[in-house]
Specification:
By secondary structure, the protein is mainly beta. 9% of the residues lie in helices and 40% in strands. It has three helices and 27 strands. The protein has helices spanning 2-18, 56-62, 333-338, and strands at residues 29-30, 39-45, 73-78, 83-88, 93-98, 103-106, 118-123, 129-133, 138-142, 148-151, 161-167, 172-177, 182-187, 193-197, 210-215, 221-225, 230-234, 240-244, 257-262, 268-272, 277-281, 287-291, 293-294, 300-301, 304-309, 314-319, 324-330. The strands form seven sheets. It has a five-stranded antiparallel β-sheet with strand order 1-2-27-26-25, with no helix packed on it. A four-stranded antiparallel β-sheet has the order 3-4-5-6, with no helix packed on it. Strands 7-8-9-10 form a four-stranded antiparallel β-sheet, with no helix packed on it. A hairpin with a 5-residue loop joins strand 17 and strand 18 (240-244). It is globular. The termini are far apart.
Length: 346
Amino acid sequence: MKRIFKLLFTIALPVIIYGCAAPPLPDLFWPEPPDEPRIKYIRDYRGGSDFKKGSAAVDILLGAEGGGALKKPMGVHADTKGRIFVTDTANADVFVFDTVNMTGTSLAAMGAKLFYKPIGVATDTSGKIYVSDSQTDKVTVLDSTGKIVTYLNPDVPFKQPSGIATDSERKKVYIADTHTHNIKVFETETFKQLPTIGKRGKEEGEFNFPSHIAVDNKGNLYVVDTMNGRVQIFDSEGKFIRAFGQFGDAPGMFARPKGIGVDSEGHIYVVDAAFNNIQIFDEEGKILLAFASYGSDRGQMILPAGLSIDKDDYIYVVDSWNRRVEVFEFIGDKAKSRLVPASIKK
């Protein structure tokens, strides 16, 4: 058996490294032609090996970990510097993928072996990293090197904190405290607690197990009100603006809503783990488009969870069952401007 494997490896290795490349796969767009494309599939990330030079196939054959592989990813956050932070409950760690310098590491590798069940992650423009741990009921603040700065200390202790979002312009960090059914708010410089948003209930501004949250470029807060089957929107002062959605299986309805994000043009993206897709809404909550489907191929997912949208309108979705983060692009004004040669830009 060893001789057979050695022979196969001897034959396969040159093919992997030098052999014929597979033909390029066709681009994936939503909606499909002839409609104007609005979402494009880009690629996926599965671990540190995606940020190493050389062949990932060789890493697999040789049994290399390549800097660590995702096992059960949950949350994702794309910062302004091209880094992708991914919480992983099976690894009890937070991965840090640098798409600019093509390096992969984790907070544990940086010395922060602190977490048991990390769920949410976010950063602010000063470089601080915020991580929620639903097993220890803590929200840890770290500096850019992975050293602990402090723990957020609310007047009512956290009970399974989950989603985190920052508003660096207004120096706020929001935490969805799932089992106290509210959103806790802190200053990002002093870590002083600010007035809490919401309480348990079904009325406007009330929650039933809130989970994922996001902040747009105006400072508005978007909350996935999970067990009420809706999304609620608040202004930067915590004042209720509107809500949309209900439980159901028709377009625009929710079954298991999870990750949420907002692009540069104000479109709202909501992951649904039961539908295995992402629905896009306008600012008023009207359904515009859905993309992705059930499966393990490109642009497919099983039990998707967190979502984050970066400053360039790239969309990062945690495909939890398939152990990866899928990357899509919103083809809006920013994407179209990237297609224009610099020499003719005004």
